[in-house]
Amino acid sequence: MAWNEPGGNNNDPWKNKGGRDQGPPDLDDIFKNLFAKISKGGGGSSGGNSVGGIGITVVVVALLVIWFISGFYTIREAERGVVLRFGEFSQFVEPGLRWKPTFIDTVYPVNVQSINSMPSEGSMLTEDENVVGVEMEVQYRIVEPFKYRFAVTEPEQSLNQALNSAIRYVVGHSTMNDILTSGRELVRQQVWQELEAIIEPYDMGISIVDINFKDARPPNQVREAFDDAIAAQEDEQRFIREAEAYAREIEPRARGQVNRMAEEAQAYKERVTLEARGEVARFQELLPQYVAAPVVTRQRIYLETMEQVYSNTSKIMVDNKGSGNMMYLPLDKILENQNNKVQRNSSRSTLEGLQQNGAAATQSSNSSPSSTLRGDRTRTGRD
Description:
Elements: H1 27-42, H2 47-69, E1 72-75, E2 79-85, E3 88-93, E4 96-99, E5 105-111, E6 116-125, E7 131-142, H3 145-150, H4 155-172, H5 176-180, H6 184-199, E8 206-217, H7 223-292, H8 294-310, E9 315-320, E10 325-330, H9 331-366, H10 369-382
Antiparallel strand pairs: 1-4, 2-3, 2-5, 6-7, 7-8, 9-10
């Protein structure tokens, strides 16, 4: 029969000791009894026993001082302390200088502010049965220190295995072309979602901050072919961007030309409309005159029209009524030849005048002073 079974038998080893109903021993009582025994041992008649009692007291006091000093510890600003008392969770400790009873409380500091990273890489088989080397990195932060320390045995190892499992699952359901080229962002998001679904039942007390897709490599045997394919896709994207830039450059010009042509057409329309209205107004003014004298008005309009036409031409057609032949007079050529003849005559006369002036100047410069003096004497004698 157990000591705590019902039936009135109280066989609790912590109770009824010495005939008294008491609970488990208190630490203060234990220390008091210890000091009392030490003091009794030091009060005997023998001096050796007295010295021994004093030594034991000094040792105990030194141990107590060491025990008290060893209880001080520091929690950093980015950490939170998880306190276990006799192996059972007690409380969380904020940053700062703290004290704990040694051998009774155990404190585990956990960094809850910094972002930790964990890489993972390996060769994996894709959905289209190709081997590809994938390298990723998970960034996480601890949000619940107690769960991170005690929910699983090895939290970092558990997270690493969960990351590897998520990567292999996603890569196994993706094609090699998507992993190496355009589907990298989708693969990264799928790995993130899969990793959160895996670690959720474990309640590890961590939060996934980001997943970095660092690299994806094909096997060495086909790497050149995949490099060419990637380069071709990059060229395609580059050509598309260049075409879009060219379209953005040409479109404003085309719109400007369209607007200019529309404005010119509108101006031409307005000009033709105004001219037509002017013609209508002019004919409306001529209508009463035509009604009054149609022959004279018709003849005058004809003459004015022919005058306007012939004022813009240099050709005249003359009808020889006697012979029935049409004679053509190229007035433009006649006038041109006449103008050229006048210019040549004026140039010739100008040149002759210059030559005569030059000859006269030469003769005057060559005449000597003696001849000039002789001529003066001759004129004087005659006088």
